[in-house]
């Protein structure tokens, strides 16, 4: 129902207006009455009024003056003016000021009904536009917040805060990222049956409730990547940085506890540093992202504060950077002594860090990332046939001895070297090396002996001969093996049909592709996709 206020200095007319029609039949309800314009202005402050029916001539504040005051207040309330025959010039002035309509006394009930129908249509249209505007404003505001978190348009921040009513103040700021950890049911299954969406909403509600109950002050909550939420908290200039950090950590501990106990859900929380100025919001966000990476070292279902990690990194020791570079170069070319070099580096770093397991874990997590990034830089196409991110996700949770760290490192790096060797990327013969790289770079194409021999400017016979001699396998077998590994990734990561994967890999016959796939994996593509071996 749209709310109505009737304004007239004669009680009998106010009473007659209420009874002349059934207002509710047209979607309206009379919620209050005013004796004149002055009285009406006071009631407007107390009630949300959609439609006002006002006499033009009244004591104190007239209907025209009331309309003018309403417009100066910035309200777009619809106003219907009641006018006598001798007040037509006043009615015209009212229309000029933006009155919705006017009606002559004595009031014709049918005319009033028609006016109400038009008013209802206008109010409905206005509500829809307002709703759309507010939704767009929220979406735009969220996009601006994301941009600010990424360090974009910082010079425009003051203007954005005003224009989009962003929940930001020019005070201290700190950012955290809350991530829903892997749970018993896989994310793929959750997505299929909408459980993930429900869990996501519940975690959002949990975080918001905990923040609202706290004395943290100004905060914002944003959805980020799949299963991640960004919390921005702020405080005025009087509070100390250390106090803001302490209060925020207490709030996040509550989020973690309630998530575990009520939602039976594990959460990983990365916390960025607190900064004095809102303009450093992006720094705190980057800190939080960095802190979250250390879940692979420190474990899951916990709060990881970047400031605590910084204390570890400030330890003064001369890091053997040249030995790390030599190790990375050895791994890239698949040298057999790479693992012994890794053991040597581990022992040297462990000694420098006084065998502090926590600090060793953090240091070697970074080393493994460096190895991964350098291998990808050299062989970016490898990710088309193998999920190299598995190498990075070592996970030192529960590791208590140097021997345990060594075993985990050796196992993962040995797998990486094995992949490089498997795809013959460590060949000393330049032609064979280039042939292997060509296959992996053109894995989604129809690779033939003719096309690759032409690209290398050699004959097909020579390519077959030297490839077999150097790698011990037939060139076409190598190309097929690479394509089948690529097919496994396409079937696992994406929702492709079997015939679509066949087309993507350059096979004209799906049946032929399926036959090769089963020969390589022991499963048909459909079986593999169903079971995700």
From TrEMBL:
Q: Which InterPro entries match?
A: CdaR_GGDEF, CheY-like_superfamily, Homeodomain-like_sf, HptR, HTH_AraC, HTH_AraC-typ_CS, Sig_transdc_resp-reg_receiver, Tscrpt_reg_AraC-type_HTH
The UniProt entry's GO CC annotations, sorted and at most eight, read: cytoplasm
- State where the protein is found: Cytoplasm
**What is an example of a Pfam family matching this protein?**
GGDEF_2
**Where would I find the HTH araC/xylS-type domain in this sequence?**
433-531
Task: Name the Gene Ontology biological process terms.
Answer: phosphorelay signal transduction system
Residue span, Response regulatory domain: 3-120
Keywords of the record, alphabetical order, are:
Cytoplasm, DNA-binding, Phosphoprotein, Transcription, Transcription regulation, Two-component regulatory system
Q: What GO MF annotations does this protein's record show?
A: DNA-binding transcription factor activity; sequence-specific DNA binding
Q: Which residues are annotated with the PTM 4-aspartylphosphate?
A: 55
State the protein's purpose: May play the central regulatory role in sporulation. It may be an element of the effector pathway responsible for the activation of sporulation genes in response to nutritional stress. Spo0A may act in concert with spo0H (a sigma factor) to control the expression of some genes that are critical to the sporulation process.
**Protein's name in the database:** Stage 0 sporulation protein A homolog
Q: What is the scientific name of the source organism?
A: Clostridium beijerinckii (Clostridium MP)
């Amino acid at each position: 129902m749209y709310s109505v206020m009737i304004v007239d200095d004669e009680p009998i007319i106010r009473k007659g207006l209420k009874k002349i029609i059934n207002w509710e039949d047209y979607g309206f309800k009379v919620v209050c009455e005013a004796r004149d314009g002055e009285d009406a202005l006071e009631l407007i402050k107390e009630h949300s009024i959609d439609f006002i029916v006002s006499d033009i001539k009244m004591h104190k504040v007239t209907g025209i003056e009331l309309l003018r005051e309403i417009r100066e207040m910035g309200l777009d309330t619809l106003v219907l003016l009641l006018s006598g025959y001798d007040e037509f010039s006043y009615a015209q002035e009212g229309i000029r000021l933006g009155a919705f309509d006017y009606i002559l006394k004595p009031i014709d009930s049918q005319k009033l009904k028609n006016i109400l129908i038009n008013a209802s249509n206008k109010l409905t249209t206005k509500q829809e536009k307002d709703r759309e505007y507010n939704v767009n404003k929220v979406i735009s505001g969220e996009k601006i917040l994301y941009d600010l978190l990424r360090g974009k348009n910082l010079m425009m921040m003051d203007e954005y805060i005003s224009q989009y009513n962003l929940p930001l103040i020019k005070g201290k700021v700190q950012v955290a990222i809350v991530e829903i950890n892997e749970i018993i049911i896989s994310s793929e299954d959750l997505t299929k049956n909408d459980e993930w969406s429900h869990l996501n909403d519940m975690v959002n509600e949990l975080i918001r409730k905990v923040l609202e109950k706290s004395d943290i002050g100004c905060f914002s909550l944003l959805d980020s990547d799949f299963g991640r939420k960004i919390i921005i908290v702020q405080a005025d200039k009087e509070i100390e940085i250390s106090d803001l950090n302490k209060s925020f950590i207490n709030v996040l501990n509550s989020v973690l506890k309630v998530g575990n106990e009520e939602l039976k859900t594990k959460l990983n929380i990365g916390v960025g540093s607190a900064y004095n100025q809102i303009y450093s919001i992006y720094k705190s966000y980057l800190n939080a992202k960095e802190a979250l990476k250390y879940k692979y070292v420190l474990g899951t279902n916990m709060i990881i504060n970047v400031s605590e990690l910084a204390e570890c990194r400030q330890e003064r020791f001369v890091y053997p950077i040249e030995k790390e570079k030599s190790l990375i170069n050895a791994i890239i070319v698949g040298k057999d002594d790479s693992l012994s070099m890794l053991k040597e580096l581990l022992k040297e770093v462990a000694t420098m860090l006084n065998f502090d397991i926590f600090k060793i874990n953090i240091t070697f997590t970074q080393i493994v990332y460096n190895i991964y990034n350098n291998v990808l830089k050299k062989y970016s196409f490898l990710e088309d046939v193998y999920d190299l991110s598995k190498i990075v996700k070592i996970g030192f949770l529960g590791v208590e001895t140097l021997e345990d760290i060594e075993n985990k490192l050796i196992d993962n790096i040995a797998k990486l070297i094995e992949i490089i060797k498997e795809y013959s990327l460590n060949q000393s013969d330049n032609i064979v090396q280039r042939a292997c790289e060509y296959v992996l770079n053109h894995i989604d194409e129809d690779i033939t002996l003719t096309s690759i021999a032409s690209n290398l400017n050699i004959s097909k016979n020579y390519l077959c001969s030297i490839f077999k001699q150097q790698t011990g396998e037939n060139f076409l077998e190598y190309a097929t093996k690479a394509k089948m590994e690529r097919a496994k990734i396409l079937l696992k990561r994406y929702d492709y049909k079997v015939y679509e994967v066949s087309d993507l890999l350059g096979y004209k016959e799906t049946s032929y592709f399926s036959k090769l796939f089963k020969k390589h994996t022991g499963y048909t593509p459909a079986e593999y996709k169903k079971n995700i071996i």
